[in-house]
Design a protein that fits this description.
CATH class: Mainly Alpha
Strand content: under 5%
Oligomer: single chain
CATH architecture: Up-down Bundle
CATH topology: Sodium/glucose cotransporter
Shape: globular
CATH superfamily: Sodium/glucose cotransporter
Number of domains: 1
Length: 507
């Protein structure tokens, strides 16, 4: 216990210290939200990866889908690396950096407002982002707190409050730069931790070969007379597995907290290096998490009060038998993953609310002349005021998500499915197509917003006739034909305006 407490205290002190160290770079809006658009490839790649993988993945998804699909759950991690990291950086990295800098966009709702010349789109997008980031944040809290209860014996309520408080301190002090620097430190811990934990768990089962043989002798849930499904390449339910791969991999390209990382990177050369770093990180961390979860059936499941398996307790039950020093490492691993994701979420939410709802500056399109000018002193005061408002909203967002986390409505995986389904279902298609295709219309963006949010909310109100995971995947993929079809039959933006926006790719 002494080792666990000391390591955790050192970790938290370092996180807060980085926040205080970075405070001078967080005095302006660009500095607080984007790190001055000068964050290097290593920090950006690790910020992307650590925001991607949190306790939601390590505890919730690895436990639930490892139990359901066995070793084939590893494909989810491979999909995360290839689609969610490599493909995301290749498709979005350069174009997002260039266009958002060209049109002076600081958030995803700001992009929609400027790219499609509609302040109404900007406002609605900011509301969607704020509302649906909350259940994801609650899922992050729940994941880390479940593990803290196991490692320290501290009640769940105290865990979520303490984690929220420490994250709020370093984000409020240092903004995005502090978040990125801490993400790098946390990413190193995650890489080392996941490899060590996998080795320890397999060793406890007699090695990799012995563990796989044990899985191969377990009967299928669907047909108890059939063995071997949990040790096979595609598992007992390949189509269900595909839905999870799509949700957790494709979804990153439509999430504000993930896409925002491309806004802040320094240049195109840094994007190329960041692509490689981010992909390798995802292979190790995501692949390792799901591979570890695949052995969950070799341990006795925890049964909840309703008589069903408590999926969020599967991974903690696997780890509780490890030596104390390794449990301390696991706690730091999941704490690192969760605090980095939480920091990214609260920063995204507060900046979106401040810049896209409270202060909606009307900007001229690239190449246009702005009407009037603002005195430098007045402008500096407004910038400082915006940063203060963002800091206040960080506290507000954390309090709301804490209230949900203290009484979570469902499993972690379902919380994330609702959040990612609505956000990526609404944002993915119009954002990605808006970077490549000049023909996307404002009406098509409205249609996709209605589709993504509407499908998710209706499914939830009807008590999830479609599994939230599969519903989220349908929302994301379905957005592309909707945007394309509606754009073909609705009014286009003025050609001259669109040409000015796309001029950034010719430089």
């Amino acid at each position: 216990m002494f080792i666990k407490v000391i390591l955790t205290i050192i970790f938290l002190v370092v996180m807060v210290g980085v926040g205080i160290y970075s405070r001078k770079q967080a005095s302006s809006v660009d500095g607080f939200v984007l790190g001055g658009r000068s964050v290097g490839p290593w920090l950006t790649a690790f910020a992307y990866g650590t925001s991607y993988f949190s306790a939601v993945v390590f505890v919730g998804y690895a436990g639930q889908f490892g139990w359901k699909y066995g070793l084939s759950a590893t494909w989810i991690g491979v999909g995360n690396a290839v689609i969610g990291s490599l493909l995301a950086w290749l498709l979005l990295g350069r174009r997002t950096k260039l266009m958002t800098q060209h049109i002076e966009s600081r958030t995803m709702p700001d992009f929609f407002g400027t790219r499609y010349e509609s302040q109404q789109l900007r406002v609605v997008a900011s509301v969607i982002a704020f509302v649906f980031l909350i259940p994801y944040t609650a899922g992050v809290y729940k994941g880390i707190s479940t593990l803290f209860e196991m490692g320290f014996g501290i009640p769940y309520e105290y865990c979520v409050v303490a984690m929220a408080a420490f994250t709020a301190v370093y984000v409020i002090f240092g903004g995005y730069k502090a978040t990125a620097m801490n993400d790098f430190i946390q990413g190193i811990i995650m890489l080392f931790g996941i490899v060590t934990v996998i080795a320890a768990v397999l060793n406890a089962q007699g090695g990799f070969t012995a563990a796989v043989e044990k899985l191969a002798h377990l009967p299928s849930d669907a047909d108890p007379s059939v063995n071997g499904g949990f040790a096979s390449w595609l598992g007992p339910d390949p189509w269900g597995l595909l839905g999870v791969v799509i949700l957790t991999s494709l979804g990153t390209m439509g999430l504000p907290q993930m896409v925002g990382k491309f806004y802040s990177i320094t240049d195109e050369k840094a994007i190329r290096r960041g692509t490689i770093i981010s992909t390798v990180f995802a292979f190790i961390v995501a692949g390792g998490c799901y591979f570890l979860g695949g052995f969950g059936r070799l341990y006795d499941p925890v049964i909840a009060s309703n008589g069903k398996i408590a999926f969020d307790s599967i991974v903690p039950a696997m780890l509780v038998t490890l030596p104390d020093a390794l449990i301390a490492l696991v706690v730091l691993l999941v704490l690192s993953a969760s605090m980095s994701t939480l920091a990214s979420l609260v920063l995204t939410s507060s900046s979106t609310m401040t810049l896209d709802l409270i202060y909606r500056d009307k900007k001229a399109l690239p190449g246009e002349v702005e009407e009037g000018s603002i005195d430098d002193t007045v402008s500096e005061k407004v910038e400082r005021r915006k940063v203060v408002v963002m800091r206040v909203l960080i506290v507000f967002f954390i309090v709301i998500s804490l209230m949900i986390a203290l009484n979570p409505p469902t499993f972690i995986a379902q919380l994330m499915g609702i959040s990612w389904g609505a956000l990526a279902g609404a944002f993915l298609a119009p954002f990605m197509l808006g970077l490549y295709w000049r023909g996307v219309t404002p009406a098509a963006v409205w249609a996709c917003f209605i589709w993504g949010v509407g499908l998710t909310v209706v499914n939830m109100l009807l008590d999830n006739p479609i599994n939230p995971i599969n519903c989220g995947a349908i929302a994301m993929v379905g957005g592309f034909p909707i945007v394309w079809l509606v754009s073909l039959v609705t009014r286009k933006l003025p050609k001259a305006d669109v040409d000015r926006m796309f001029a950034c790719y010719k430089k």
